[in-house]
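Can you give me the bound-state structure? Components:
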Amino acid sequence: MSADSKAAASTEPAGVSPQVEPDEHPRSSPMSIHDMTVAYHRRPVLWDIDYNTPPGNLIAIVGPNGAGKSTLIKAVLNLVPTVSGQVSFFGEPYKKQRRRVGYVPQRSSVDWDFPVNALEVVTMGLYRSIGWFRPVTKKHRQAAMAALDRVGMADYAKRQISQLSGGQQQRVFLARALAQEADLYLMDEPFAGVDAATERAIVAVLRELKDAGRTAMVVHHDLQTVQEYFDEVVLLNMRLIASGPVGDVFTEENLRATYGGKLALLDRVGHRMTLSGGRQ
Ligand SMILES: Nc1ncnc2c1ncn2[C@@H]1O[C@H](COP(=O)(O)OP(=O)(O)O)[C@@H](O)[C@H]1O
Ligand SMILES: [Mg+2]
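Here's the bound-state model for the whole set.
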């Protein structure tokens, strides 16, 4: 028997997904990924991802460029198709729980020339709960203003988004997700290219979310601040390399496994980990 026919014999019938045990999708977990594989044009970019998000934590998703971090977020939100696997939110499929899930896309993926002001961007984030063809009420506008205020952007409510700085645009995006009052937030590189004031504002919001029992999973490119900002870390490079509490998982060994040969960068981080009393 050739290797090919052996492989074919062991392959499950097409279109039949494996049975999922109930406890593989616990309700207590804001997001649970089971055996997820994602491909673009038949080239897999994420392999066999298994992960249960612990509730009430700030979680960094870390890995090199092209590791599949954005793809992971898009795939769980059904924005790109998966080859296999199941994902649940609070124990149910995304379409049943989507109101409880807030998404902050990467700033660079958005057309900022679109002629709307900051308040309108935040209000549009509420359409899912308002309903597309219902009027926006004063209550909704107040909720949107409150969200802008939380990120320090209330004074810019009527400013066209094309007229905002990158950091301000990012804060508007965050306000849009906050207004939704979600229980789980998925954020793609919210700290990329922002000024120091915006970085502080975002960190403050993340801590507020955590204090209120919410969960945030944040794609984060800055290895130097992972320990300071996050409780948990997911190390990703096409495969899930390691995940768990930052103190256990954010080790030099795991980072080497995630980043491969980019040693100069890792040496700097290793140095900092030594200084902060972290593992070496
Ligand atoms: N729409 C797409 N079509 C084809 N390939 C894509 C697409 N989006 C991303 N990729 C590829 O998938 C891999 C993972 O990309 P991505 O998820 O954006 O990584 P990251 O966010 O970690 O930088 C990369 O090799 C990237 O080139
Ligand atoms: Mg990305």
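A couple of observations. Strands lie at 31-40, 43-52, 58-62, 84-89, 101-104, 184-188, 215-219, 232-237, 239-245. Residues 69-70, 106 surround magnesium ion (ligand 2) (CB under 6 Å).
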